[in-house]
Amino acid sequence: MDFSIxxxxxxxxxxxxxxxxxxxxxxxxIIEEEDRxxxxxxxGARQLGLFGTSIPEQYGGLGLNMVGKCIVGQELxxxxxxxxxxxGAHTGIGTSGLVMAGSGAIKEKYLPAMAEGKKIGAxxxxxxxxxxxxxxxxxxAVKKGDRWILNGVKHFITNGPIADVVTTMAxxxxxxxxxxxxxxxxxxxxxxxxxxxxxxxxGLRGSYTSEIIFEDCEVPEENLLGKENEGFITALKILAxxxxxxxxxxxxxxxxxxxxxxxxxxxRAQFGxxxxxxxxxxxxxxxxxxxxxAARALTLQTAWKVDRGADIIRDAxxxxxxxxxxxxxxxxxxxxxxxxxxxxxxxxIERIYRDARITRIYEGTSEVQRMVIxxxxxxxxxx
Length: 383
Ligand SMILES: Cc1cc2nc3c(=O)[nH]c(=O)nc-3n(C[C@H](O)[C@H](O)[C@H](O)COP(=O)(O)OP(=O)(O)OC[C@H]3O[C@@H](n4cnc5c(N)ncnc54)[C@H](O)[C@@H]3O)c2cc1C
Hints:
alpha+beta, four-stranded antiparallel β-sheet, 12 helices, about 15% strand
């Protein structure tokens, strides 16, 4: 078994690490205080091709496989979660449906601009009445001539207020439940598309989350993504591949928390010695590193399976569940090691702790991941 990173990927990893350390770290306070991603960071990400990690080279992307995307995701995860969440929603759930299920015409039309970061992607599945039970969605799509007419409200959509291209799930045959849902590529400029309420959140500053409202929104028939009534399967595939990417970002966040905690524990002295001299602190650090490495291994194993075309429904759910829960525990211990300073906005720990909380909720809650894992076990056994 070979765990080494191929040279070409290692070069990309190093340049993303430098970008995060030299460009993202110094701007984290601006993102936090002003709730916006500075234009020079967006430009820097463009230069590195970070808007096109999921997009094949023929459409101007980096064409990375899933292992490659996870290596990049780990590095971005060390930086500000609002910035990596904005990029992650674009490159992951915002783009992968077009890559996976888009016709040649859809790919030609949208992917080059999305790879350059000139058009931003989003993914709209969740509705006020359809969260964990995503198949209960009510947004409808009715065919009229050469257009689909969409009506309904999506909420909690990452990049909603700034997205140009939204992969949208809507009911095309209400009599068929999940098998009556189709996916559409909807542009923000289509008549009847509107951004609704923009949410105020606990964290993820710089990453915007909003309603998207469709009022007789006209979508050309060629913007049906994949086959009619097969959109829910596409949505599940998009979410499954997104889960490995999110796992990778969580591993990156854990790494940052460990680096900061190790440094603080060596510098902070109480009772006449650095706090790291206490076994209680050492054991917290030991558990943080052990769990992080286990999450890293699971994430990369799942990514490796994605690249081999394996069925990864259970693996993706396990990765999302484990990596996000590990991040929660690592963030909690990082605050503890920092004592009162861990609670102060002066250090990044407080922010990372808040930002970590969402990972156990979005892209399917921990409870939903356990339902998926158990469902797969009951259906397919364990081998
Ligand atoms: C910041 C943010 C960004 C988001 N971005 C996007 C996006 O880009 N696109 C998108 O489509 N969606 C997005 N979402 C939506 C997100 O995926 C949902 O919030 C999530 O799936 C949970 O749905 P819900 O909020 O309706 O919670 P609910 O489904 O109402 O769940 C509430 C609680 O009940 C539990 N629960 C529900 N059913 C069961 C069950 N059967 N067994 C046990 N427990 C259960 C849940 O686990 C949870 O603890 C985002 C959400 C947030 C907060």
